[in-house]
Design goal:
Layout (H helix, E strand, L loop, with lengths): L2 E4 L5 E4 L19 E4 L20 H13 L3 E4 L12 H18 L3 E5 L10 H18 L2 E4 L3 H6 L3 H14 L4 E6 L16 H14 L4 E7 L3 H9 L6 E4 L5 H6 L7 E4 L6 H12 L3 H8 L3 H7 L7 H11 L18 H14 L5 H14 L5
Parallel strand pairs: 3-4, 3-10, 4-5, 5-6, 6-7, 7-8, 8-9, 9-10
Antiparallel strand pairs: 1-2
Helix pairs in contact: 1-2, 2-3, 3-5, 5-6, 9-10, 11-13, 12-13, 13-14
Length: 384
């Protein structure tokens, strides 16, 4: 069987899908790295909503996907940007997602960390109002029993007068947090509203402020998640962290080398690409647990082309490819997204994502994936 896929030039070419998936099974818990997958949400395709409506979530399918990730030993990073936080999922929806996922994690023994932000603020806000919004969300996450991830705040980026406001807001939150948190530095390629975070567009100056926050409260910082798509900068930052503070890579372009590490250390992982790569990523980390860095790289390096494709500019729309692959893999019954975001990428982009994922053997049922891809192509006017 072959399938005709469009390229960027408007031409159709034949592609022959693989017949069998990559053989992957559940295994023992990881021992050498802590690994989170930032998980997507599944929209309710039958909800009568508009682009201005609150998100309608299919809770059964959303939680089932988290159980899938936990079954392979991965932690779940909940209510992050992969879950369309700030791009279709508002704070009310995120709060419900946190409550439900944290309860599910407790029921199955899964690891979970949840995003704490300020997205209940809908207009201009002072640093004090930003701090109060963070506090509200931090309280909910801690009461749910999940670990907190202090996400970057659009409101703080808009209102901060300089580094001192970041030091004040984050210092206050860290002093009152019940348990060590993960700090998240999300670059503007993921969210343009975060340009100049930590008080400067100069990344060296911003890094110094970020490290000052951590140095003032090292006992309250479990780790940092760095999403700047700059491997060299992440390594330099990693080497400057206080002892005991982990670096969780959020670099969806360079994750194999950053997780593998070097003679001076390594990164743990909190990655959106580990949503579609979950079972394969878990297998690779278990190989790394044995000390086999070469085997780890042999498994994970071939996935980088797919990840770079999904996260190509404009990077913030990577969620569309993630959900496409979840549908093709059979984890949900439709390709509908919160806020209609399934329209954010082109058909050639979808076709290339399918081809790369199929080549890697990511689809548990390649025949189902092919059938669903043909259905999508037909909607765009491609006939067999």
């Amino acid at each position: 069987m072959t399938i005709r896929l469009p390229d960027g030039g408007g031409r159709l070419r034949a592609y022959e899908p693989r017949a069998t998936p990559l053989a992957l099974t559940n295994g023992a818990p990881f021992t050498s790295r802590t690994v989170f997958s930032a998980a997507h949400v599944v929209a309710d395709p039958f909800a009568d909503v508009s682009p201005d409506s609150a998100a309608a979530v299919d809770w059964d399918a959303t939680l089932a996907f988290r159980r899938h990730l936990w079954s392979h030993g991965l932690g779940v990073a909940e209510a992050m940007d992969t879950a369309q936080r700030g791009m279709g999922l508002d704070w009310a929806g995120a709060a419900e997602l946190i409550r439900r996922s944290a309860a599910e994690a407790k029921a199955v023994g899964g690891r979970i960390a949840c995003g704490v932000g300020t997205d209940q603020l809908t207009g201009p806000a002072s640093p004090a109002e930003v701090r109060a919004a963070y506090e509200e969300q931090l309280t909910l996450v801690e009461e749910s029993g999940a670990q907190a991830i202090l996400m970057a705040s659009r409101a703080l980026a808009a209102s901060a007068r300089g580094p001192e406001d970041y030091l004040d807001v984050y210092g206050h939150l860290l002093r009152q947090s019940a348990e060590p948190v993960i700090l998240h530095w999300l670059g503007p390629m993921f969210d343009p509203a975060l340009e100049g975070y930590w008080g400067s567009r100069d990344l060296d100056a911003a890094t110094d402020v970020f490290l000052e926050v951590i140095a003032a409260h090292p006992d309250k910082v479990d780790g940092i998640k760095v999403s700047l798509l700059d491997a060299r900068r992440e390594v330099d930052l990693r080497r400057r962290l206080p002892q005991g503070v982990r670096c969780y890579t959020g670099d969806d372009f360079n994750y194999p080398e950053l997780i593998a590490g070097d003679e001076q250390g390594f990164s743990h992982a909190l990655l959106g690409i580990f949503d579609p790569l979950g079972p394969l990523a878990a297998e690779a980390v278990r190989v790394l647990d044995t000390g086999d860095v070469k085997g780890f790289r042999e498994l994970l390096d071939p996935t980088v082309e797919l990840s770079r494709h999904l996260f190509e500019a404009p990077t913030r729309f990577y969620k569309t490819g993630v959900v496409l692959l979840a549908w093709l893999a059979g984890h949900q019954e439709h390709f509908t997204m919160v806020g209609g975001l399934q329209s954010a990428r082109s058909l050639p982009h979808f076709a290339r994502a399918y081809e790369l994922a199929d080549t890697l053997g990511l689809f548990p049922n390649p025949e189902l994936a092919e059938t669903r891809m043909k259905t999508l192509l037909a909607l765009y006017g491609v006939t067999s």
